[in-house]
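Lecture notes, continued. The same structure-token format from the folding unit now serves as the input rather than the output. Read the line below as a description of shape only.
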């Protein structure tokens, strides 16, 4: 679905680049409504165990059990999946394998952070859950040399009328997917 078919989304005019780098879950540079929490990993000599979410605690506490959906996406090294947004749905992301360069952009004209971009490096080296509210464009690039796995919860069942897509190279967003530390 093209972003032009959904009149409530306005493409901002962003400065080229990756926006604000987020290194702490409580960063003051986060897009309004985006929330981050570390998730624990219990490792031993057999491997590791991690919790995706507890529906009565943390970032998923407000997700209604009747409509919460759990999904997963395996993405190959170097692939970019961006940009995607929802009008009503909230996503809760947890990278369970590999590393992602997560790109967020605020597409909500009435938001105090409209047009702000965030970049987060998330996965095995930085085990964070990310809550992405409606109206925040989101996408990622798999970094490293192995595929990466995203497990995510949504507070609503899949509805194609609630989502839209914007090209990863949309000039208004001007996100720089190239290697940053050249």
């Amino acid at each position: 679905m093209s972003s032009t078919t959904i009149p409530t989304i306005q493409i901002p005019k962003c400065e080229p680049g990756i926006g604000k780098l987020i290194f702490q879950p409580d960063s003051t540079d986060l897009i309004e409504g985006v929330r981050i929490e570390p998730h624990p990993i219990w490792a031993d000599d057999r491997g590791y165990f991690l919790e995706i979410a507890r529906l009565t605690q943390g970032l998923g506490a407000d997700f209604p059990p009747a409509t919460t959906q759990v999904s997963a996406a395996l993405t190959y090294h170097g692939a970019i999946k961006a940009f995607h947004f929802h009008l009503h749905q909230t996503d809760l992301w947890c990278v369970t394998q590999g590393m992602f360069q997560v790109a967020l952009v605020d597409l909500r004209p009435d938001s105090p952070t409209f047009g702000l971009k965030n970049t987060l490096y998330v996965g095995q080296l930085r085990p964070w859950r990310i809550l992405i509210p409606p109206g925040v464009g989101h996408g990622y690039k798999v970094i490293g040399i192995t595929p990466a796995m995203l497990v995510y919860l949504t507070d609503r069942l899949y509805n194609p009328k609630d989502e839209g897509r914007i090209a990863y190279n949309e000039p208004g967003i001007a996100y720089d997917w190239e290697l940053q530390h050249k």
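Point for the exam: The chain has one domain: 3-7+18-165.
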